[in-house]
């Protein structure tokens, strides 16, 4: 059985768990990472020298990098509805996954770290103004796009393009700080929430 290594509250592990639930495949999971067994332990390093989660093991095949894992799972289970076979449609999906990691998530990360990872008390942590400004600028891009397009990022259908961005959108709404009104993203968040797998691994109260 396919095995996932990584704590279920990690945004990168959640991408993989969300995808696995979309496919309906069974899997096992072992907690590794912050708050659990340290990924610097020899047992984990033997598996993946990079020492970060998620990692999957599929019948002896070991793979790291959340987006590569999501695409591997789509390919493995033949889910061209989630990851199109058509060259151009596939490229559009990939462009959203890349943007979600290098721009959207990169902007969100300092806020999350200040409010959760490095906060003495997350209940009273205050969001850094500069961080919120950078994150909001990326969210505004998404808002503008979704105002004229959609209902999902790559068009009419939910695809793996929505997984990385959807989890950052969840983080935006779950962390407490003053936010501009983003009606198209709010509607998108509600649309994603119709999916049981997103309610389990995304909109589950964890930022
Ligand atoms: N580019 C990697 C990043 C992986 C990553 O940074 N994972 C974090 C959790 S989100 C981690 O392992 N942190 C160390 C820990 O939890 O101990 C991916 O997308 O899989």
Label this structure with key terms.
207 residues, alpha+beta, Glutaredoxin, Glutathione S-transferase Yfyf (Class Pi), Chain A, domain 2, 2 domains, four-stranded mixed β-sheet, binds glutathione
Q: Could you name the CATH topology of the largest domain?
A: Glutathione S-transferase Yfyf (Class Pi), Chain A, domain 2
**Low-confidence spans: pLDDT under 50, at least 5 residues?**
none
Q: How are the strands of the largest sheet arranged?
A: 2-1-3-4
Query: What is the general shape?
Result: globular
User: What is the terminal separation in angstroms?
Assistant: 29 Å
Topology as a string of helices (H) and strands (E): EHEHEEHHHHHH
Q: Please give the CATH class of the largest domain.
A: Mainly Alpha
Oligomer description? single chain
For the CA atoms, what is the radius of gyration? 17 Å
How large is the share of residues in beta strands?
A: 5-15%
Reported for the largest beta sheet, the result is:
4 strands, mixed
Number of helices: 8
Query: Whole-number average pLDDT?
Result: 98
The overall number of domains is 2
Number of strands: 4
* CATH-scheme architecture of the largest domain: Up-down Bundle
List cofactors, ions and other ligands.
glutathione
Protein structure class: alpha+beta
**Roughly what percent helix?**
40-55%
């Amino acid at each position: 059985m396919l095995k996932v290594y990584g704590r279920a509250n990690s945004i990168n592990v959640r991408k993989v768990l969300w995808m696995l639930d979309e496919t309906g495949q069974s899997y096992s999971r072992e907690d590794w990472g912050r708050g659990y067994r340290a990924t610097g332990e020899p047992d984990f390093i033997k598996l993946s020298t990079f020492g970060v989660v998620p990692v999957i093991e599929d019948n002896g095949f070991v793979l790291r990098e959340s987006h590569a894992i999501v695409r591997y799972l789509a390919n493995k289970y033949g889910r061209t509805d989630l990851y199109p076979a058509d060259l151009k449609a596939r490229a559009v999906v990939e462009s959203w996954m890349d943007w979600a990691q290098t721009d959207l998530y990169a902007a969100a990360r300092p806020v999350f770290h200040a409010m959760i990872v490095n906060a003495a008390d997350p209940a009273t942590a205050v969001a850094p103004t500069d961080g919120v400004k950078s994150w909001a600028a990326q969210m505004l891009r998404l808002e503008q796009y979704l105002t004229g397009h959609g209902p999902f990022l790559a068009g009419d259908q939910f695809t793996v393009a929505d997984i990385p961005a959807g989890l950052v959108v969840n983080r935006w709404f779950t962390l407490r700080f003053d936010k501009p009104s983003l009606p198209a993203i709010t509607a998108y968040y509600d649309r994603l929430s119709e999916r049981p797998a997103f309610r389990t691994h995304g909109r589950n109260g964890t930022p």
